[in-house]
Amino acid sequence: MTDPDRHTHLPRPTATRPLLGLTVLVVEDSRYACDAMRLLCLRSGARIRRADCLLSARRHLMVYRPTVVIVDLGLPDGSGADLIAEMAKTTPRVSVILGTSGDSFAEHVAFAAGADGFLPKPVDSVVAFQNEIIGNLPPERQPRGLRMVADDPVRPDPLAYRDDMAHAADVLNVNRDGRMVDYVAQFLRGVAFSAGDHVLQAAAEDVSRARVEGRSLPGDVARLSRLVQERLADRVAI
């Protein structure tokens, strides 16, 4: 296993880039959320790697050991909590394991699985991002001195949002069984919440609610699919 943070030639943290020398693996299926993480890492000096599912993350971790792993709790091939639990028990352990989600209950789930910290979505504050990582680093790895940070929110590329809509449309076109409907509703609810797309968020929540209550939901899914297509056609701006 390669540990990039053991190389002595890595740059040292600075007041404006306190995460220099760290590698962050983001396990996230949303390109919009991942672009926010990319911008946060860029401003902080950290290198970023991305995995969009549990399988990809596990393959990555067989080869590399990043300093920080940030895991979305809802992934297309299972729960991010399972990956957190695996990493928490692995020796040598990743220095910092963080969960992330837009769901209110997810923080408890992440900590129960063994996470060191949690980043509630939308993750757009440079200060909050840096504080959560630095505060969970081993004391000898924490940068010293004052930090100088401009905390204006990061703004992900709107094209990344369209990529997420294309992903959701592909899933809905291919498979509308119960498990995939649950996944798409959860995925769109989180993406729309992060982007401030309240209409799409409400439609995704309606589908999730219908599934929980055991109601027939073809109309709810059709409405959700229509809203996704509108965003793909650029008739709705975020």
TrEMBL record:
Q: Where is the signal peptide?
A: none
Which InterPro entries does the entry mention? Answer: Bact_response_regulator, CheY-like_superfamily, Sig_transdc_resp-reg_receiver
What are its GO biological-process terms?
phosphorelay signal transduction system
What CDD domains does the record tag this protein with?
REC
Q: Which domain of life is it from?
A: Bacteria
Record keywords, A-Z = Phosphoprotein
Q: Which residues carry this modification: 4-aspartylphosphate?
A: 72
The record's annotation in Pfam families points to: Response_reg
* Record's keyword annotation contains Phosphoprotein: yes
Please report the stretch or stretches of sequence annotated as the Response regulatory domain: 23-136
* Official protein name in the record: Response regulator
Name its species: Salipiger pallidus
